Amino acid sequence: MPIQNQIILDVLSGKKVARTPMWIMRQAGRYLPEYQEVRKQAGSFINLCKSPELASEVTIQPLRRFALDAAIIFSDILTIPDAMGMDLKFEDNKGPYFEEALSSQKDLKRLDQKNAGEKLEYVYDAINQTKIKLDNKVPLIGFAGSPWTLCVYMVEGKATKEFRKVRSLVYEEPAFIEKLNESLCSTITSYLVNQVKAGANVVMLFDSWGGLLNKNNYEKFSLEPMKQIIKEFKKESDVPVILFTRGGGNWLPLIIESGCDCIGLDWTVDINHAKSLVGNNIALQGNLDPCALHGDERSLRCAAKKVLEGYGEGHRHIFNLGHGIDQFVNPDNVNLLVEILKEESPAFHQN
Q1: 268 near 288, Cβ under 8 Å?
Q2: Does residue 263 register a pLDDT over 90?
Q3: Is the predicted pLDDT of residue 93 greater than 80, yes or no?
Q4: How far apart are CA 275 and CA 14, in angstroms?
Q5: Tens digit of pLDDT for each residue in 104-162?
Q6: Rounded to an integer, what distance in angstroms lies between the CA atom of residue 43 and that of residue 129?
Q7: What global pTM score does this model have?
Q8: Catalytic positions, please?
Q9: Could you tell me where the beta strands, DSSP code E, fall in 201-259?
């Protein structure tokens, strides 16, 4: 059966649409009271991720509240290093971390690349269950972290202020970083392909820490591995790929050559400039400042309109935040944003 609301798929394939579609990064998450209830039931964040039934329930929750145009599977980018044997841990108010980080090439022997795919079956099961619950109403987005972003966590052990260790190793032991990236590329590619087989209609690469790098290092250690993933993925699937590099506004001319179908923009990027670079060849996603959702109706409408006006007329824009939604946002403001988009965006689709 065809998906009833295909507007995001239409934008990604270059078809004309009557309004600007919308979904929200981290739309299934801590700002929703019903999420908190399921999180308590699971006992821990990791248990929630690894329970297909509960992860599926959390994925669906925002669709029950808001008229969004896509669901995104509830999971975490660090499921891959966890499946490779790094033992992912979460603590409230501390976030994800690995007790034994990687420091040199000899540490790569600890990684179980061969069996990682089997250990991620819970993600595919969650996708399968979610597809049944969605009943072809909207597309489902699958995702993975980029090799560089996973590398950052695997080397640092956790998010840090300056990421000095991994940034230094780029110069001290580049062969180690390249080898780690190489092992991650094949695992991520298989992971995305398997998500599509389970039912994902779109996939997204989250390059959360690409913005840490200068141009040369971004090309070598972040972009090139993603290009390889996209190239190999497209040999197996015709599902569209969204690529999001946080802090990557300076590297848009490079990202255009990645082979992706849509570029996600963070809130610091001038979307009009981005459109002037990509034209109609690639869709753009974004890029409302997540903090705009803390404003009143007038402020939120103004901020949303500025994003719409920045992109201007055209049919290749997916409205989203420039990063994940803040856990302290009032859910009513998300509903308000959805209504604002439905009121304001049709004017940009007249031609």
Answers
A1: no
A2: yes
A3: no
A4: 14
A5: 999 999 998 888 888 999 999 999 999 999 999 999 999 999 999 999 999 999 888 88
A6: 21
A7: 0.97
A8: 26, 30, 39, 76, 153
A9: 202-207, 241-245
Q: Cis (ω within 30 of 0) for the bond into 201?
A: no
- The amino acid present at 124, given as its one-letter code, is Y
For residue 14, what are its two tokens?
A: 């270059």
Handedness of CA 307, 308, 312, 314 (dihedral sign): positive
Contact between 342 and 19 under an 8 Å Cβ cutoff? The reply is: yes
Kindly state the helix (H) or strand (E) to which residue 298 belongs, with its residue range: helix 297-311
| Domains and their CATH numbers in the chain | 7-349 (3.20.20.210)
The tokens describing 172, both together, are: 């001290």
Q: How far apart are CA 9 and CA 15, in angstroms?
A: 9
Order of strands across the sheet that contains 283-288: 71-72, 140-145, 202-207, 241-245, 262-264, 283-288, 317-321
What percent of the chain stands above pLDDT 90?
91
- Is the preceding omega at residue 214 within 30 degrees of 0, hence cis? no
- pLDDT, position 95: 80
| 41 φ/ψ sector (left φ>0, alpha ψ -120 to 50, else beta) | alpha
Helices vs. strands in the chain: H and E counts, helices first: 15, 9
